[in-house]
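Reopening: KIR3DX1 isoform 8 still failing for me.
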Amino acid sequence: MAPKLITLLCLGFCLNQKIGTHVGAQDKFSLSAWPSPVVPLGGRVTLSCHSRLRFVVWTIFQTTGTRSRELHIGLSNNITISPVTPGHAGTYKCVGIYKHTSKWSAESNSLKIIVTGLFTKPAISAHPSSLVHAGTRVSLRCHSELAFDEFILYKEGRIQYSQQLDQGMEAGIHYVEAVFSMGPVTPAHAGAYRCCGCFSHSSYEWSAPSDPLDIVITGKYKKPSLSTQVDPMIRLGEKLTFFCSSEISFDWYHLLRDGVAHGQWLSGGQRHSGAFQANFSVGPATPVPGGTYRCYGSFNDSPYEWSAPSDPLHLYETLRVLLCHSWNPPMSLTHIILKDSPAT
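Support: Ran it again with your exact input. Result attached.
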């Protein structure tokens, strides 16, 4: 029998029998997953062993309690799993035999492989808003109609498990939810968040991920200014143009109405009266785009970190409404009043 084959057979036997002399802890392997240890059902993941020393044989195995199942034995230090099934969810480790002494390495770190997509996705929302000023607090709410035992919030590989679940009724439908509190927020909290749900009897098998929720941290840069046409009387059916100006040459300008994105503009270096300016056209004004508008600036290399908001610009829906209520808006605010077009 070939020497390499004998070595492989001996390795498998020794692993199952827990026999062997180990190399020192300083030679311990590390095990990693690419592109991520959180893998969608039917997806693809590569597990790789890493060591400073040279080994002739590598093995990667899945552990369940005190039992081990060999997934790979060979000369290669990695294995690709595709397509991923629920059976691949669990904890993995790797070991190897040193080239010159035939001694075992110590076991690698434990690597948890999570399989997602086994249940319907939950919903995620931010309160009071997904736009959060630096130094304040925000709560992320993850909820589902399925009675999950736990919710998991994650962003770019950082995972947080729920500490407590609440239950309730909404529109006659029972739901469970978890609330994740964050803050005082810093730029490190910025990014796209998702959440999943799981049951206690299968903690490595998660639901499909929620839709992404972008948490944007504001206040990093000086606020821009927001203005519109000089004529405060805009007829219905006409376009309304907003001007967002700043001393900083931002890569992006964002216009929000009542806290909701209403447009964004990629800067081309346009200058107006010594300032950098982005123009947003809204309308034709049918229906009338009333509300409170603000604009922000940001850069390509930090898309979730925005400037402080501009001062608010309040747009009132029609002149007729204001006259009917006989109400005078406060002078400290900027107002644009839309006038009904005459009947034809």
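DSSP finds two helices and 28 strands in the chain. If you still see a failure, please send the error message rather than a screenshot.
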